Amino acid sequence: MLVVVRESSYEYDQLRERLFAVMDLVGGRRMGRGERVLVKPNLLSPARPEEAVLTHPLVVRAAVEYVLEVGGRPVVMDSPALGSFGRILREGGFADALRGLGVEAAPFAESATVEVGPPFGRIEVARAALECPWVLNLPKLKTHAQMLLTLGVKNLFGCVVGHRKPDWHLRLGVDGEMFARLLVTIHEVVKPAFTVLDGVLALEGQGPGKGGTPRPVGVLMASRDAYALDAAVCRLLSLPPEDLPTLRWARRLGHWRTEPEIDGDLPRVDNFALPRTEGLLVGPPAVQGLLRRHLTPRPVITAKRCENCRLCVEICPAGALSPGPDSPRIDYEACIRCYCCLEICPRGAVAKVEGPAARLFRLVTGK
Ligand code: SF4
Ligand code: SF4
């Protein structure tokens, strides 16, 4: 499947021209005829564009302008994990970027139930994502504590409305593999028509929130196939695609069959800092469950950076965080290693840290 790659900056005239070009090449002009187009950026939480946590507001503007030019009716939607949608639009620069275009921007509100079969049964997904005839997916290139990277497939977890997200983390517990399978299932339900990745300013290290480090990469990438696009990003970062849990599951479930066919030049990106995931897990599933709790890195709060806002306490799906005098306390027996606290912390005060058991295991096994 075709993946178009073009160098770009956020200088608007260039960005607009490049985004129009990549969209044309993947068939974007098929949208139109007055149909609604759901534009789905990553609007995780309030963050400034230079923090590289959200899809850049000018990428969203260029995408909206493209939809308008081809005759579609764009609506910009997401379901943030933290903060009001209005605040994200203001602080993230989206309100300014979209001014004058007359486009609707709103949070997902209503869910609809979809039967997806085992193992998940019925899942609830934003009704708008199901009903819009076209979905234009606009992920950010950034790392993710649990899924390694959050790209095209992972971006659609934003189509699960508000409080349902922590519910899923709680239901799936420490099992990152099941979470990856859920993400692939949600992707299959939403089926974006196009995915355009903002890799101009990426986020490496302890992403996907403010604990990550912005890293200029300078690319826009587009495809009709989010799996192919995610695999092309793996190639960009010299990473085997099987290292992405979502691609492993997409392959296993038969949704991802073909290697990306790349139009354009992938820039050289050396030593992109990735978070360490569950590479230590070995053995049969029952043993893995036991190992997971002891070997999966723990969230650790750096008290010096913490402003004790307690947002992490509010979001923790397992109730593992409790208020403390200077910073929250973590009950590691209750913690399910979902890293929602890391994702949400406005100060980047939560990090993933390997415990002594994991360090010993690495020493013994050489992993
Ligand atoms: S760790 Fe982060 S989210 Fe939690 S209280 Fe401290 S600053 Fe707030
Ligand atoms: S403490 Fe953090 S990683 Fe552990 S369950 Fe709560 S939000 Fe998830």
Which helices and strands appear, and what pairs or packs with what?
Blueprint: E1 2-7, H1 12-25, E2 36-41, H2 57-69, E3 73-78, H3 85-91, H4 94-98, E4 104-107, E5 111-117, E6 121-126, H5 127-131, E7 134-138, E8 140-144, E9 148-150, H6 164-172, H7 176-190, E10 194-205, E11 212-223, H8 226-236, H9 245-252, E12 261-263, H10 285-295, E13 298-301, H11 311-315, E14 321-322, E15 329-330, H12 340-344, E16 350-353, H13 356-365
Parallel strand pairs: 1-12, 2-3, 2-7, 3-4, 7-10, 8-10
Antiparallel strand pairs: 1-11, 5-6, 8-9, 10-11, 13-16, 14-15
Helix pairs in contact: 1-2, 7-9
The structure holds iron/sulfur cluster (SF4) (2 copies).
Describe the structure.
- With 367 residues, this protein is an alpha/beta fold.
- It folds into two domains: 2-263, LarA, N-terminal domain (Rossmann fold, 3-Layer(aba) Sandwich); 285-365, Alpha-Beta Plaits (2-Layer Sandwich), CATH 3.30.70.20.
- It is 32% helix and 24% strand.
- The protein has 13 helices and 16 strands.
- Strands 1, 2, 3, 4, 7, 8, 9, 10, 11 and 12 form a ten-stranded mixed β-sheet that branches. The chain has a two-stranded antiparallel ribbon with strand order 5-6.
- Helix 1 (12-25) crosses helix 2 (57-69) and helix 7 crosses helix 9.
- The longest helix has 15 residues, at 176-190.
- It is globular and about 55 Å long.
- The chain binds iron/sulfur cluster (2 copies).
- One iron/sulfur cluster (SF4) binds at residues 299, 316, 318, 320-321, 330, 335-341.
